[in-house]
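Human: I hope this is not a bother. Would you mind checking the protein record under this note? Thank you for your patience.
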Amino acid sequence: MILSFYMFARAIVKGILTPVYRYEVIGAENIPSEGGVLLCSNHIDNLDPPTVGVTCPRPISFMAKAELFKAPFLKTVLPKLETFPVKRGMADREALRQGLKILKEGKVLGLFPEGTRSKDGKLGKGMAGVGFFALRSKAAVVPCAVIGPYKRFFARLKVVYGPPIQMDELRERKAPADEVTEVIMKSIGELIEKYQ
């Protein structure tokens, strides 16, 4: 039932956004067709979640700031879209558990590692939580870059999915979460540099 609502909402959002922004999707084949996927994207606009959602070939469960769930409409709709809250500025154990559960169930977990939108459009520092998910799961870690000016209607927006990041060595030596986050952010940065 939830998945049906997700696909219905996805079709509506895609129908609205695609003519406005003319998405160019690159590397969608890099998203594994099955199994857990940790999808990590830069964050330049409030439209990033729907943009990534309509261009990814698989449904995504996004982690979103808890404040969004206080709005009457959003607190009803977001859970139906398999989006769950995270309390920012603290270690939210429930959000961590929920994220790991999604990955272990073989689904796609969508994260914006910077934790907030970039004010200048440049890639910021990633939070250690993304490294935690990468280390504590066996999920494929896929970097994503959203590139383009949302403020200009009918401009071409690029959504780039990079190849899964090699995690074996990092997991085997139990690298610190912040080091893993840096590796992920570097991969996102390389996509931005290559395709912008």
The chain has a mean pLDDT of 93. The first helix runs from residue 2 to 21. The radius of gyration is 16 Å.
